[in-house]
Write a structure and sequence with these properties.
Layout lengths: L1 H10 L1 H30 L3 H28 L5 H12 L4 H16 L7 E4 L2 E8 L3 E7 L8 E9 L8 E3 L6 E10 L5 H33 L10 E6 L4 E10 L3 H17 L27
Helix pairs in contact: 2-3, 6-7
């Protein structure tokens, strides 16, 4: 029995060669899985654990490439030539996979984003919860849900998308965003009092974000070629056909846009009501200038 198996392997050298190659690949993947499990158990820091596991995975893929080249070229000296021929042969069929793997290296070393960041890519917005060698996994935000709330869907995007369009990062370098809302004030209201109410409320509830963002914004200005910006709440007035519109623009933590806007609106509404009619919120109004009349002949 054993001799028959040996003879079969001797009579089928190509098949034997391929089987040996597959065994080596299997051993590498099993070794990667074992090292990842070991690191997961022994490393307590989540960031270090994640990066170490991803590094092991990348090293494993690199070893598979080296073994593939050495097995099918016969010599590791021809590595450059073999990689060129191999790439030319599988570019069309494995283009997406190649771009995804290249994208994972790009994301890792250039630090386009990392787990925990809030990004928008390929028209999809969400929080990054994992980045592997092929996919970026996100917890989706928006769609049928208003504001920056989770929709409940987990989205997997190919890493190749980092080469195909812009990546909007809400949290990298500067974890704050500017937000705004409009407040319609009725004509005849005390505009100075209205402006005072809005600015006072904004300064009281946004002071923490302003103070925290000052140092962060200074770092951004030092790092990039960008003009300095005002992070204090600002108010602008626009005259419309129906009301005086107050536009409040302010800076806020990117994860607290909705709750902050709700808090500001609630507090401003309470203080306007406490003015006893000196300041009134406006709504769309229609003025009827003249009602057309018609004479009816009763005899007809």
């Amino acid at each position: 029995m054993l001799e028959d198996i040996q003879n079969w392997f001797q009579n089928h050298p190509t098949t034997t060669h391929i089987l040996k190659y597959l065994v080596w690949v299997l051993v590498i993947f099993l070794l990667i899985a074992w090292i990842r499990r070991t690191l997961k158990k022994r490393i307590t820091n989540d960031t270090l654990k994640y990066r170490s596991q991803k590094s092991v995975e990348i090293i494993g893929y690199f070893l598979v490439i080296i073994i593939t080249v050495s097995y099918f070229t016969g010599s590791i000296k021809d590595f450059g030539l073999a990689i060129g021929l191999l790439t030319a042969g599988i570019t069309i069929t494995l283009q997406e996979l190649i771009l995804s793997i290249a994208g994972s290296f790009y994301i890792l070393f250039v630090k386009v984003y990392q787990p925990g960041d809030r990004i928008e890519i390929n028209g999809i917005k969400g929080d990054v919860i994992d980045v592997d060698s092929i996919y970026t996994t996100m917890m989706e935000i928006g769609e049928w849900v208003s504001s920056d709330n989770y929709s409940g869907r987990i989205v997997k995007l190919s890493n190749a998308f980092v080469f195909r369009g812009p990546v909007y990062n809400y949290s990298q370098d500067f974890p704050f965003v500017w937000d705004e809302f409009n407040l319609p004030i009725r004509y005849g209201s005390d505009m100075d009092l209205a402006k005072t109410i809005v600015i006072d409320v904004a300064q009281e509830h946004l002071r923490q974000y302003v103070n925290e963002s000052l140092s962060e914004w200074k770092s951004v200005v030092d790092k990039y070629y960008i003009e300095d910006a005002n992070v204090d709440p600002t108010l602008a007035i626009t005259i419309t056909d129906n009301w005086m519109q107050l536009n409040l623009r302010y800076i806020v933590d990117y994860k607290k846009r909705r709750i902050t806007k709700n808090l500001l609106n609630e507090e401003i509404a309470k203080r306007i009501q406490a003015t006893n009619g000196k300041v009134e919120l406006a709504s769309t109004t229609i003025e009827i200038v003249r009602i057309p009349t018609d004479t009816i002949d009763k005899k007809k």
